[in-house]
TrEMBL record:
Region (Reductase): 149-418
Role according to the record: Is involved in NO detoxification in an aerobic process, termed nitric oxide dioxygenase (NOD) reaction that utilizes O(2) and NAD(P)H to convert NO to nitrate, which protects the bacterium from various noxious nitrogen compounds. Therefore, plays a central role in the inducible response to nitrosative stress.
The UniProt record lists the keyword Signal: no
Binding residues annotated for FAD, in chain numbering: Y190, R206, Q207, Y208, S209, F397, F398, G399, P400
This protein's encoding gene: hmp
Site feature (Involved in heme-bound ligand stabilization and O-O bond activation) residues: Y29
Biological process per Gene Ontology, one example term: cellular response to nitrosative stress
Keyword set, alphabetical order: Detoxification, Dioxygenase, FAD, Flavoprotein, Heme, Iron, Metal-binding, NAD, NADP, Oxidoreductase, Oxygen transport, Transport
Binding site for heme b: H85
HAMAP family found in the cross-reference section: Hmp
UniProt name for this protein: Flavohemoprotein
Entry binding sites for NADP(+): G276, V277, G278, L279, T280, P281
Pfam entry (one): Globin
Length: 418
């Protein structure tokens, strides 16, 4: 346990971290990668360039300091990050490296304000927190390897089928190259894919939600091609998968991970809300709920630009035809003339509070949502306005977590960091 002196010292740094946290984490990553470039094989370079990783880590450090006297309060964060660490292959030997450069960054940024007492307290606190992560991740590694069909590290999978689902999303059906069994997963989980790109010195690892039922003999991932825009470069890996990954090619995956999963024991109605490629974990959840609880009411709401970008529409419509307890609603922000002629969507423009209230049958339900940050902010705010219990609101960010800026608990804002 941490001493009272250490706890008090860490608590005293909370205001400083609130102001200088991101500057510290930027310095941390700069110096760590300069000394250990091999770690660039693990970290997402795009998130680094966009500053998302630095901001997410700053939030985590801040939350750890704020709750240092009650770390159980951030246990959900520990588990969420540990899932990501296990999927990436973060090992116990990486933690001393992180600790060394994090403390050095605190010293560099704060200068004389980082007294010996403060640095000693943070060294002690970091060691305590690192041990917690290592312990949790040890059990996760064990479970991933020892479960039926499980494996250690990354395993070779063959692209059995590639399907273009929309103008910008393609699905890849993956089966193990060795012909063996595959581990089951909980609907909503993801796999990490390790990919090497031509003329790139570093390996890239990306997480992709599993988009089909856990009962299938394959894994399906559905990937949006990120072509980039003025303020955002194209996604190297997603473009590579769309342009170059063919049926018969081999990719390498870690075992399924993640704690954004649908509760199949809950018998109340479930509402699944997605925007864009946030559809992918919702598809897995939809299949799982319909298979496990054929009578459970499900409301499925999906927002996208138009019919050209609407992936898996036929699959969802077919499920709705077979399951009368499934209600489906589509929102197109910019429908085409063809969409308007077909009249097969339910709202034009952005989802808003009044419309959402008309399609959600009850607030006594479990709500799951995923999509771009502005979309998630709106959905989260709406559910709060509708007095949905915080325990019934579940969401996931693709990549490092960002703030929804509506008073959410720190543990929801700081996941998916280091």
């Amino acid at each position: 346990m941490l001493s009272e002196k250490t706890i008090a010292t860490i608590k005293s740094t909370v205001p400083v971290l609130e102001v200088h946290g991101t500057t510290i984490t930027k310095r941390f990553y700069e110096t760590m990668f300069a000394a250990h470039p091999e770690l660039l094989h693990i970290f997402n370079h795009a998130n680094q360039k966009q500053g998302k990783q630095q901001a997410a880590l700053a939030n985590t450090v801040y939350a750890a300091a704020l709750h240092i006297d009650n770390l159980a309060a951030i246990l959900p964060v520990v588990k969420q990050i540990a899932h990501k660490h296990r999927s990436l292959g973060i090992l116990p030997e990486h933690y001393p490296i992180v600790g060394k450069y994090l403390l050095a960054a605190i010293k560099d940024v704060l200068g004389d304000a980082a007294t010996d007492d403060i640095l000693q307290a943070w060294a002690e606190a970091y060691g305590f927190i690192a041990d917690a992560f290592i312990g949790v991740e040890k059990e996760m590694y064990k479970q991933a390897e020892q479960q039926h069909g499980g494996w250690e590290g990354f395993r070779a999978f063959v692209v059995n089928k590639k399907v273009q689902e929309s103008d910008n999303i393609s699905s890849f059906y993956l089966v193990p190259e060795d012909g063996g069994a595959i581990a089951s997963f909980k609907a909503g989980q993801y796999v990490s894919m390790k990919r090497e790109l031509p003329n790139d010195a570093y390996t890239h690892i990306r997480q992709y939600s599993l988009s089909d039922s856990p009962s299938k003999p394959y894994y399906r991932i559905s990937v949006k091609r990120e072509d980039g825009r003025d303020d955002l470069p194209a996604g190297k890996v997603s473009v590579s998968l769309h342009e170059h990954l063919r049926e018969g090619d081999v990719v390498h995956l870690s075992a399924p991970a993640g704690d954004f999963t649908v509760d199949l024991e809950d018998t109340r109605p479930v509402v699944l809300i997605s925007g864009g490629v946030g559809l992918t974990p919702m598809m897995s959840m939809l299949h799982a709920v319909l298979e496990a609880s054929p009578e459970r009411p499900v409301t499925f709401i999906h927002a996208t630009t138009n019919g050209d970008t609407h992936a898996m529409k036929e699959q969802v419509s077919a499920l709705a035809g077979r399951h009368p307890q499934l209600s489906v609603f589509y929102c197109y922000t910019q429908p085409t003339a063809h969409d308007r002629a077909l009249k097969d969507y339910h709202k034009e423009g952005l989802i808003n509070f009044p419309w959402l209230r008309t399609v959600i049958p009850t607030t006594d339900a479990s709500f799951y949502f995923c999509g771009p940050q502005p979309f998630m902010k709106m959905i989260n705010r709406a559910l709060r306005v509708f007095d949905v219990s915080a325990a019934d609101i579940h969401f996931e960010f693709f990549g490092p977590a960002e703030s929804l800026n509506d008073g959410q608990e720190e543990q929801q804002e700081t996941a998916d960091t280091v």
